[in-house]
Design goal:
Elements: H1 4-42, H2 45-54, H3 61-77, H4 81-94, H5 99-147, E1 149-152, E2 158-161, E3 171-187, E4 192-208, E5 213-227, E6 236-249, E7 256-269, H6 275-280, E8 285-299, E9 302-311, E10 320-336, E11 340-355, E12 358-373
Antiparallel strand pairs: 1-2, 3-4, 3-12, 4-5, 5-6, 6-7, 7-8, 8-9, 9-10, 10-11, 11-12
Helix pairs in contact: 1-2, 1-3, 2-4, 3-4, 4-5
């Protein structure tokens, strides 16, 4: 009969070796698990196939296989179907009898196709949005090319530059309506001095291109109300101007316009005017004209325009040796809206005629309200 103490010692030794064997197995499998973890982080199908094929005859292969399938399910949860598909195929190729892996393959394949269809649809939307954005950029670029000056860079491409005077639009217009046009007519030979009241409309337009500015000036004034005694026969009943001037400015001086056009300088003498007035005061003159004009000179917040014209009609009109005109306008802004600016304008106009019988002068002081499109 075996003593009781010896039995206890035998059982302890048996349990020791069994536990050591169990720990050895767990340590071995755990090491493979860690390698599989690293393989799934690196997403290396080659390494996964290697570790499975090397251990396929191992008694604990089913544990390795189950752990691999667990990692694949984690990929599915994270919507990482690319490596999940590759990994499940490797599992099946190493064990064709794994029905669970085959079922998992079917699930992954269906989800993978759905994901590809979704990604293809999202990519199509992305490409359409990129095309829309590019079309919008091209539209804006065309507008910039039109409204700004493009300076080419030596490395290629363009830089868009805008000086202080660059306009927000490619054109500028301004209209001035005279609320009061006070005129003074004097003729040295006839001894004539008349004052008149009238109205005037002055319209200006410029179109700005990269290398040139073109435009036109239109003026219509009518001084119809003379300030004179009814018994005074030495006066002119009315006079006025009609002018149409196309104009051009070159880049070297964008504020300086050369202009050439046509002018009608109108004078109407009273029916009962004296013979002295009838003979001496110049009749209506229709004449081509050339001139120079300087516009939009900044004086603080105000803008100054001035210029002179030569009326070529003096070359073919009897009793007229030379005719010229001068003008000046100061624009004072008082309101600026979103698209237009309102100004108060104080202007001077003068027509000078050198005649063989003396000098005739027609001067106007003009007070007007102006409206123009906004520019910077």
């Amino acid at each position: 009969m075996i003593p009781r103490k010896l039995k206890v010692l035998f059982i302890a030794i048996t349990l020791f070796f069994s536990t050591a064997s169990l720990f050895a197995v767990e340590e071995y499998v755990s090491k493979i698990y860690k390698n599989i973890d690293l393989i799934f982080v690196a997403k290396s199908g080659t390494d996964l196939n290697k570790i499975l094929s090397e251990n396929i005859q191992d008694r604990y292969y089913y544990l390795i296989e189950n752990y691999t399938e667990k990692k694949i399910r984690r990929l599915i949860i994270n919507n990482d179907y690319d490596f999940a598909m590759e990994a499940i195929v490797i599992v099946i190729e190493n064990n064709l009898d794994n029905e669970q892996a085959v079922e998992m393959y079917a699930v992954i394949s269906e989800a993978y196709e759905a994901q590809q269809a979704y990604e293809a649809q999202e990519e199509l939307k992305r490409q359409q949005e990129l095309a829309r954005i590019e079309a919008e950029k091209e539209k804006k670029r065309a507008s910039v090319d039109k409204e700004y000056i493009a300076a080419s860079k030596s490395q290629g491409g363009s830089v868009y530059v805008a000086g202080k005077e660059t306009k927000l639009t490619s054109y500028h217009w301004k209209a001035m309506l005279a609320l009061g046009d006070i005129s003074f007519m004097a003729d040295s030979a006839a001894g004539l001095k008349n004052f008149h009241y009238g109205n005037a409309l002055d319209i200006r337009y410029e179109y700005i291109m990269p290398k040139i500015i073109i435009g036109a000036d239109l003026l219509a004034s009518w001084n119809y109300l003379p300030f004179t005694d009814e018994d005074n026969k030495d006066y002119v009943s009315m006079f006025g101007d009609i002018e149409a001037f196309p104009k051009v400015a070159l880049p070297v001086a964008k504020n300086v316009f050369l202009r050439a056009g046509f002018a009608g300088l109108i004078a109407g003498k009273a029916d009962d005017a004296s013979d002295n007035v009838q003979l001496k005061v110049l009749d209506t003159l229709y004449s081509p004209a050339i001139g120079i004009k300087i516009e939009k000179l900044k004086i603080g917040s105000s803008e100054l325009d001035f210029g002179i014209d030569w009326y070529l009609g003096s070359l073919y009109t009897s009793n007229l040796n030379f005719a010229m005109g001068g003008y000046l306008n100061m624009a004072l802004p008082y309101a600026e809206l979103e698209k237009v600016k309102l100004t108060f304008n104080l202007g001077l106009r003068d027509k000078l005629f050198l005649k063989s019988s003396g000098i005739e002068n027609r001067a106007n002081v003009v007070l007007s309200i102006g409206v123009e499109n906004v520019s910077k």
